[in-house]
Amino acid sequence: MASAAEGGREAAAAAGRRYWRWSKADFFPEPSFRSWRAYGGALLSTGPRLRDRITSRSSEAVEAGTLLAQSENPLRRCLTWVDLAFLGFGSVVGSGVFVLTGQEARFDAGPAVPLAYAAAGFSALLSSFCYAELATEIPSAGGSFSYLRVELGDLAAFIAAGNILLEAVVGAAGLGRSWTSYLAALIGRDSDALRIHVPELADGFNLLDPIAVVVLCATSALAVTGARLTSTINSAASVVGIAIIAFVLGGGFAHFDPANLGPSFFPFGAAGVFRAAAVVYWSYTGFDMVATMAEETKNPGRDVPLGLISSMSAITAVYCAMSLALVGMQRYSEIDANAAYSVAFAAAGMRWARYVVALGALKGMTSGLLVGALGQARYTTQIARTHMIPPYFALVHPGTGTPIYATAAVTLGAACVALFSSLDVLASVSSISTLFIFALVAVALLVRRYYVAGATSPAQLRTFQAFLALIVFSSIGMSVYYNSGYARRWPGYVAFGALWVAGTAGLALRAKQQRAPKVYGVPLMPWLPAMSVATNLFLMGSLGSLAYMRFGICTAAMLVYYVLFGVHATYDMAHSEDQTASAANAAIDGGEHGKIVLV
């Protein structure tokens, strides 16, 4: 009771606080960090606290209700499904086809790069179905982070949170550097002409890009003015972008030469296509930003599925068509990896068109940065509301209704990365993080449909766990087998494919669904989520060992932070709200401390 009373006094005091403040209590308000002695005691209790956090689950009421008080001021509901569709279009198209198509056509897929986009788009569309259902059930600014906290627990959510923040920083940095490349093309210079070469630094990190830093700061400054204004600007810019895409398609196919698709359509083999698909998956990542806007959507139950699925379907078709136009205009071995479309039009005799394309690419990437700044800040806000990172970054400005501190934090990180790192380094890191999170979201949806704490019988739980494990392990096995020395032998594909089918059919026929969706449900359950798990894990396997090494180092650093800080902050936060959240949790299956049954 004392903790509840203390929390009430703190909430009351917060109402009178100024937004612009900076103190230790704003960053580390939890009891575990009040003194070195308290922190030492918390470290000694790491084992029990870690078990508590792993086995506990949040709830819809906590994610979309109780935690909002941590922001002190609300995000404003002002968006419709049309806004969401344009936000999805604006964030994805600018950050995809203009950035990575040239690189992947040149070095990985060759003329088959449209197939890479089709494969990645199919996987992304499966993920968008999963996101659509979860966003209607849990309309929180946290997106995938909130979904995983409810269904898989704090540890899984934290690992996802770290990768979400990594994706946010790396994705924005990659766009910022591509912006510089296209600006150089617009003024008729080499793609690296506006960067500063520092030979003392390692390759991939020795071309400094101050222009990218300026662009990142400018778009983030606009994003903090408000979601409504940002959405309006993005919608207007998207109309211009659609016109430029129509021009690219018309001009590209007018100069289409089938001979450019030869002599081999697969110069790097099928492995090159899947490797390219894993990298260009980054170009679809903007769609998950739409899910983070659910808290600011007027009718999330209707608007989020419409906005997500309509934008993703259109974007996949656009990507395939535009990439085909590129490899038809210019032989893949001659494509400029940094500013592909501008240089291709110049090579086709339309030198003036390169300026139109470069301007369109700049517009698209600016829209991507603008919408990304919105979504990334909302991810960060929800993560901070749970105290996994300091709650200072959860504060929403009373005037703008936006999380200024969260936006500034992500922008600062992206600016530092953009200043040094090249696009190929950034793309591989971002893609593996994105694929990992999307696979976890699909697993979370299956857990949500087939397991309810306190209601699912032990026998049903064991059945579900067995078939889910079969789906995951067969998907991993297929990916590993394809990338092994036995890739040309068909028995492995038959074996792993049969295991995946057995696992998914087992869920469909033997495991009973424990929960029905309230508004929107993924069709063909459990086949679509299971396919999403398989495609995301398969594409992860197509990335190189260097991407896994970077991913492993980043994840290890995240886990060290979690053990030293995150687990103690979230433990204090969860237990300080036991009294105030218990009534809300009682009304919903699986509250904040509804434990998973360990079988």
TrEMBL record:
<feature type="transmembrane region" description="Helical">
    <location>
        <begin position="112"/>
        <end position="134"/>
    </location>
</feature>
<dbReference type="InterPro" id="IPR029485">
    <property type="entry name" value="CAT_C"/>
</dbReference>
<feature type="transmembrane region" description="Helical">
    <location>
        <begin position="467"/>
        <end position="484"/>
    </location>
</feature>
<feature type="transmembrane region" description="Helical">
    <location>
        <begin position="547"/>
        <end position="567"/>
    </location>
</feature>
<keyword id="KW-0812">Transmembrane</keyword>
<comment type="similarity">
    <text>Belongs to the amino acid-polyamine-organocation (APC) superfamily. Cationic amino acid transporter (CAT) (TC 2.A.3.3) family.</text>
</comment>
<feature type="domain" description="Cationic amino acid transporter C-terminal">
    <location>
        <begin position="520"/>
        <end position="569"/>
    </location>
</feature>
<feature type="transmembrane region" description="Helical">
    <location>
        <begin position="265"/>
        <end position="284"/>
    </location>
</feature>
<feature type="transmembrane region" description="Helical">
    <location>
        <begin position="521"/>
        <end position="541"/>
    </location>
</feature>
<protein>
    <recommendedName>
        <fullName>Cationic amino acid transporter C-terminal domain-containing protein</fullName>
    </recommendedName>
</protein>
<feature type="transmembrane region" description="Helical">
    <location>
        <begin position="236"/>
        <end position="253"/>
    </location>
</feature>
<feature type="transmembrane region" description="Helical">
    <location>
        <begin position="155"/>
        <end position="176"/>
    </location>
</feature>
<feature type="transmembrane region" description="Helical">
    <location>
        <begin position="352"/>
        <end position="374"/>
    </location>
</feature>
<feature type="transmembrane region" description="Helical">
    <location>
        <begin position="490"/>
        <end position="509"/>
    </location>
</feature>
<dbReference type="Pfam" id="PF13520">
    <property type="entry name" value="AA_permease_2"/>
</dbReference>
<feature type="transmembrane region" description="Helical">
    <location>
        <begin position="426"/>
        <end position="447"/>
    </location>
</feature>
<dbReference type="GO" id="GO:0005886">
    <property type="term" value="C:plasma membrane"/>
</dbReference>
<feature type="transmembrane region" description="Helical">
    <location>
        <begin position="78"/>
        <end position="100"/>
    </location>
</feature>
<dbReference type="Pfam" id="PF13906">
    <property type="entry name" value="AA_permease_C"/>
</dbReference>
<dbReference type="GO" id="GO:0015171">
    <property type="term" value="F:amino acid transmembrane transporter activity"/>
</dbReference>
<feature type="transmembrane region" description="Helical">
    <location>
        <begin position="211"/>
        <end position="229"/>
    </location>
</feature>
<feature type="transmembrane region" description="Helical">
    <location>
        <begin position="395"/>
        <end position="420"/>
    </location>
</feature>
<keyword id="KW-0029">Amino-acid transport</keyword>
<keyword id="KW-0472">Membrane</keyword>
<dbReference type="InterPro" id="IPR002293">
    <property type="entry name" value="AA/rel_permease1"/>
</dbReference>
<keyword id="KW-1133">Transmembrane helix</keyword>
<keyword id="KW-0813">Transport</keyword>
<feature type="transmembrane region" description="Helical">
    <location>
        <begin position="305"/>
        <end position="332"/>
    </location>
</feature>
